[in-house]
Write a structure and sequence with these properties.
By secondary structure, the protein is an alpha/beta fold. It folds into two domains: 185 residues, Rossmann fold, CATH 3.40.50; 58 residues, rRNA adenine dimethylase, C-terminal domain (Helicase, Ruva Protein, domain 3). 36% of the residues lie in helices and 18% in strands. The chain contains twelve helices and nine strands. The strands form two sheets. A seven-stranded mixed beta sheet has the order 4-3-2-5-6-9-7, with helices on both faces. Strands 1-8 form a two-stranded antiparallel sheet. Helix 6 links the parallel strand 5 and strand 6. Helix 6 runs parallel beside helix 8 and helix 8 crosses helix 12. It starts with a helix and ends with a helix.
Length: 258
């Protein structure tokens, strides 16, 4: 596949075999038999996945890559999905089976891949892959940090996040201008919320859209009662709240009587 084509997809071709192996080995292989690799390209990560006791599937929208994979990985040919991951229904390919997600994710759609995973968390027990380091750190960050935000809270509501290792630009062709980071998400045993999920998302997004303001000011649009607005939690700024505190906040709002 040409460098130009890979750049068009927002990807950079990983050329370091050891790092490819390390990413593949980030999978714990617990509680699932299927793994879906997003954007395999020429299969630098795929070949290490195929050594595992997992049923490997790949999803790739680039036709050159699909033809290469079919020609060079014959035992994978019937498990290549020539679609856009963001547009498929996992159940169409995996039924009700569990499937782990892995990949060297294109920077330009990496956060969308995370949100798609959250939507399908009932089917995705584990998620491991490489992001732009800034995005990986944001997903894994805890409260109290300036980079802690919407992506941190929503991901950590359903998954335990581990930042595994940093990857330098020199191991890619073409080299990106930034470092990359590999993270692993492990689904929590209880991955349902005790509050209205849509409201939870609204509270988190509304709060961080004006992150410098206190919650008392940033959540004005939710028409809270005067009594609730006096709760001490509303004197805090969003980055001061843990994911659990956002759940508690949502519960307070859900039960608010105006």
């Amino acid at each position: 596949m040409s460098v130009r084509a890979k750049k068009h997809l927002g990807q950079h071709f990983l050329k370091d075999e050891q790092i490819a192996q390390n990413i593949a080995d980030s999978l714990t292989e617990k509680d699932y038999n299927n793994v879906l690799e997003i954007g395999p390209g020429m299969g630098v990560l795929t070949k290490y996945l195929l050594k595992k006791k997992l049923k490997v599937h790949v999803i790739e929208i680039d036709t050159e890559s699909v033809e290469y994979l079919k020609a060079n990985y014959l035992n994978l040919a019937d498990r290549i999905i020539s679609k856009d991951f963001l547009k498929i229904n996992l159940s169409d390919y995996f039924g009700d089976e569990q499937v782990a997600i892995i990949g060297n994710f294109p920077y330009n759609i990496s956060t969308q891949i995370v949100f798609k995973t959250l939507e399908n968390r009932h089917q995705i027990p584990e998620f491991s892959g490489m992001f732009q380091k800034e995005v990986a750190k944001r997903i894994a960050e805890k409260e109290g940090s300036k980079v802690y935000g919407i992506l941190s809270v929503l991901t950590q509501a359903f998954y335990d996040v581990e930042y595994l290792f940093t990857v330098p630009p020199t191991v890619f062709n073409p080299p990106p201008k930034v470092e990359s980071g590999v993270i692993r998400l492990t689904r929590k045993k209880n991955f349902t919320l005790p509050v209205n999920e849509k409201l939870f998302y609204t509270v988190v997004k509304t709060a961080f859209n004006q992150r410098r303001k206190t919650l008392r000011n940033s959540l004005k649009t939710l028409n809270l009662s005067d009594i609730l607005r006096e709760d001490p939690i509303f004197a805090k700024r969003p980055e001061q709240l843990s994911g659990q505190e956002f759940i508690s906040l949502t519960s307070k709002i859900e039960n608010d009587v105006i």
